[in-house]
Fold this protein.
Amino acid sequence: MRLTLPTAAVLAALVHGHAYGFEILDVTGLRPGTVYPVLRRMEEEGLVRSSWERASLARAEGRPPRRNYRLTAAGHRIADAAEKRFPTLSKMFVASGEAAIAKV
Amino acid sequence: MRVPEILIRCAAVLVPSLNREQWRAEWMAELEYARQRGLATGENPHRLRIQLAARALGSVSDALWLFWRHTALRRSGVVRDAARILWRKPGYSAAVAGTLALGVGSATAIVTVVDALLVRPIPFREPDELVMLSRSANSPRPPDPQALLEWRAQERVFSEVRAHAPTSLILTGAGDARTEPGRLVEPGFLEMLGIQPILGRSLTADDALPGNHRVVLLGNDLWATAFGRSPDVVGRTVELNGEPYTVIGVMPPTLRMLLPAVVRMVLPLPEDAVARPVWAMGRLQPDVSVEMAQARLDDVSRALSAERPREEGWGVTLMPLERLTGPEVRKGLLALGGGVFCLLLIACANAAGLLLLRGVERRRELELRLALGASRATLLAQVLVESMLLAFVGGVAGTLLARWLVQGLVYLLPSGTLTFSYSIVSIDGRILFLALALTTLTGLAFGMIPAYRASRTAVRGTGRTSTASREEVRLRAGIQVGQLALAVVLLSGAGLFIRSFQQILAVPLGHDADRVLRLDLVSLERLRGRDATVDFARVLDQRLTALPGVEVVSRSEPGVSFAVNYTIQTDDGGPRDSGADMLPFLRVDSAYFRTMGIRIAEGRAFASEDFLPDANTVVIDRDLANYLWPSTPAVGRSFRIRDGPWLRIVGVTEDVKLEGPRDPYGTYLLFYPANQEDLRDQIVLLRGDGDLTLLVSAIRSTVRDLDPDQPISSIQTVRQSLGDDLANPRLFLVVMVALAAAALALAIVGVYGLASFTVAQRRREIGIRVALGASSQGVASEVVRRGLCLALTGAFVGVIGSLALSRYVQAMLFGTSALDPAVLVLSAITLLASCAAALIRPARSAAMTDPGSVLRAD
């Protein structure tokens, strides 16, 4: 997997706990045509794992369940490498007031 | 269902079926969540809808990516393969791409020009409210000053009325001395149009005061050519008519086509000039339509006529600016638009035919690859990519072609056609997109049909041969017939225009337009005074007469003037209403008829006694004579126009068409005598007895020797000066012939392609027939017969189509019937002959089929 800036941005968003497609679009400012292919490729390569929200939770809010993406252990290793290559990306999330999520 | 949901459902088609449901669920859920969150945070619902639609649009790129990733496209290098395959078939690839390019290019170019002339709004502020005030309903004529004052006062109708007038001034001190056309405008005129200078300031009321008028706004062209677009031109002094003028600003390029003449500079119209007849333009009140305004002004003019009766009346006609493109040009452009649409259809049909042909040819290859394990999707994708590549190349070439064609067409258009339109016609993106979409769709659809059929046949396991199915043959034949029919329509259109043009040229003008040179000089009377001008004219005429090769020299006004809204009273009875609202007249000197070669049918030409102050004699043309005195000779009779002096007729000329073969101002003509002094600053006519072109340089040097500072506007034959009358028919003729030639060429390619294809398809059958004893002549004649059968059907349908369209074409023809049987028959014969020629090679190829080699190959 090539570590381009959009890939690193998506990884950083996932590291900071943004698990849904539109959320990642919002926090990275990237286009859907960029973010979704990155997520799909990462899933194919085992860097992220997707799962569906609990149906009961979504039903309670009157909407269909959403798909979320979590980094796997391999994903976290790549995310570390990405953070080293693009150190300012991570700061962007902290600076914008987003809570840093502890790595699992 | 909302727009975002529709977008997602459409995009989902591209997603591989295995993941489709999940993919759709993910996008739908995200959209719904975003919608709920937006509503909960109080987002504006309208803006939220737009945001969600934009987000949903992203699903298309996501789906495309998945499609690309999960079909075999990416791994198989299908684009590279497609390019390689097309490269190996250069003739086929060039034919398809060239056909598409021709279709896209010509359609885009002509529609762009038609759009710029007829459809696109005028580049002025609120152009719908702008009207030209004219004295005559038939053609723009300047209103008279007294009436103009009345109309200005109509505040319920106009928010403002501004006067303007053409002018031309001699520019010196910026390159060679030359005359430049300009426009005198009342302050506020440019603001009324919504035009602001791009440099400097506009005209103010002070500029129109006597003594302050020596300021000039340069047109964009003049600024570019004479001043190299220098930004510090404002404040500089230029010499116009020998007087210093201060440049106060530079106009934007839109001004170039401001009025029915080229405008290279704008100057203030002096306050006192409004007392002379000047043109006027008005802006209607926002809630007043042109019809309402006209009705109110008609009421006013009736009231004025009752209160203060005048001969010339108080009437005014409002002409909306967008109607100023002449009706002839409008009709012509619409016809050309139709012609281009035909050509585009022919191009699409041709491309479709070629693609079908190629598809059937490749069927065996596709079936073999399927049998060897290639997936159906891969094969279809490959054909798709090939078609798209061809469409892309054709589209790029077509766009380039369109650019050139637009420039060419604008160049060919008669001057003044682009009045009130953009000076620079640029390609309209929407039209280009439409043409590209049409041709691309054609390419895709007809490229895919054979591939799709091949893949289905192979799946069913029944396809063993590479022959076309019956439906494909029928489809191909149907396309062919349609294409040939359209070609006949264009051919007959071109034929009618040729006939019409011949008719125009065949009209006897009644004068020797080719034997007379016309010298237009710029009048310097304002600079030099009357006496000097009279002297100059007298000496010039003497010297020109003395030139070898010059028979006779005379002077006249440059073009006819008109008596408007006139009545004629004859010496034998009451007044006559002429039926036409303008009576053209021309003031000429004694040598005029001899110079122009106008034959006097009755009576005599002007003699010296006619030039005495109270002679009141005239020469009229035969049409007017026949109208006034249908049964008795007109010579010696008298008539008068309105309350003017009685005019005695001394001569009647043969029918004369001074303004061109189509007599744009009606058929009557009246000649007044004018002595040389009165015609001192008018045009000079020279009748020569040899090659007139040799005289031109001698005339130039004669003028230069006499006065080196005298600018010459033009020296041309009278025939050349009639050019404008023939410009429109000539343009339509050229374009229609070009369209018809392109259509015929495409039709021939189509016929040739189909026949070659059919022969290739039937090679085995032909081989067997030859082996069984069929003569090669018989085989060849069958190929020709089949081809001609289609051509005949096409020609028949085309003739019917031409007949159906005839009433739309009739208005543009001169002395020719749109149902002219000779033209229709000739078009059909041309097509059939071309088709027969195109069939020769395929027929020969069929005749030379060697049964042995065919059967061995099988």
Q: What stands out?
A: Chain B touches chain A at residues 22, 25-26, 28-30, 32-34, 36, 55, 57-59, 61-62, 64-66, 69 (CB under 8 Å).
